Hints:
203 residues; Aminopeptidase; eight-stranded mixed β-sheet
Amino acid sequence: xxxxxxxxxxxxxxxxxxxxxxxxxxxxxxxHRFCSVWExxxxxxxxxxxxxxxxxxxxxxAAREANACGRDLTLVMTFRKGVREVFGxxxxxxxxxxxxxxxxxxxPEVWGKGLATEAVQAxxxxxxxxxxxxxxxxSSRIENAASRRVLEKCGFAFAGxxxxxxxxxxxxxxxxxxxxxxxxxxxxxxxxxxxxxGLARAR
Length: 203
């Protein structure tokens, strides 16, 4: 699904405030810290709580393997300036040959700063830019209003309520489902390019 450009571990995305790059073994301690927080784990399908020792290392290995194969793309978030410790992760996973599914988790201490929106916008742009995908899908626990706002700000449309598998939560959980099609993304992307820089930053 993903081309050679993204299959090399030197690959990274830069935004106004962030670097999104491949996870490394040296990131495991930081990943363990934010994944161990219940407020992070509770809204995810796969992060168990308590977070077992060694899980961060296994996450890094699995992410790097999937990245290298071009099957999925999982990146970690750091600030471009100052302390560059990892405080979140974000992924696009392939669903067949023409769809991607978005997932992300971010440490509570950086909530409310627009960083998740910045990261989601960057990786969605990349997904449509580098792959033939016609759609990116996402889901959010119905009680996770903040995640819903992030998706809506990035152009995702509400697609209904349904049950999603959540192994780390013990089975199925009720979620809001979202989707963003290529045509809608292209229109929004063109609008952003036309928009004056100051106005774009104010949104």
